[in-house]
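User:
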Amino acid sequence: MACNSMEMNRLEAEISGNRPNAVFTQAASLPFSLAKPFSERYPARDLDHRSKEFRPLSSKLYPLFLNLKHKPVMVVGAGRVAVRKIRALLDCGASVTVVAPEADPRLLEMADRGQVVYLKKAFEDGDMDGARLAVAATPDRGVNEAAHRAAARLGVFINVVDVPDLCDFHVPSVVDRAPLRVAISTEGNAPALARNLRKELESIVPEALGGYVAHIGALRERVKTERPEFVSRAAEMLAESEAKSLWLAGKTEEAKNRLEAELDDLMKKTSDNEEVRA
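Assistant: Predicted structure:
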């Protein structure tokens, strides 16, 4: 099978993730190594820049925040713990499907309100098809392992609650001051400690700080639209402004006025300096 470079790029894109559900029935006819699984074609390595030698990939977890809005998420289990996980997923806008032979009354209420799709049955491999993320929250190790295998087969990241060795990711304890969020993880080693640390931080990070972050974010977006050349300097000024203290003291209007004045002053000074240099 002859392929030009454009065809090679198309096949590579389909296999490597731009079309996650693509299935090739004639893998043996693909060119070169494209017939091999992605992990075999690109074995993981971690470059140690000090020695310039390759070493096995670190087990350190990569922290990240996911946009789950309208993304299909499979939850295996419908008990008390699952309900807590489902509520957090719904709060992020996920499209949640739940499979379990029995369900907590609160889950049934969610299903009645159309917040989730509830499949009243035992989990089967095919239930995982189409999911972008998965959570297994059952007390049955066999069911959890089956969910893990099904997710692995499809390349779906899964969290099996309280079973770190079956987790592709861990759900952190979160201090929520939306849009400011502070996440704490012990990588599954000490969830109770993470919860205690979260409580400590909640007493330190003021509730009002979220509103302040949202406001300076709106100002930054305005600068990006009106004067994009000032974005970097404006972002630094907004982050360092003493207006934060006014905001946290409940003087929001005074804080807003100060931010506007500081922003106008910054752009005026910068414009004047540019004129002098010209």
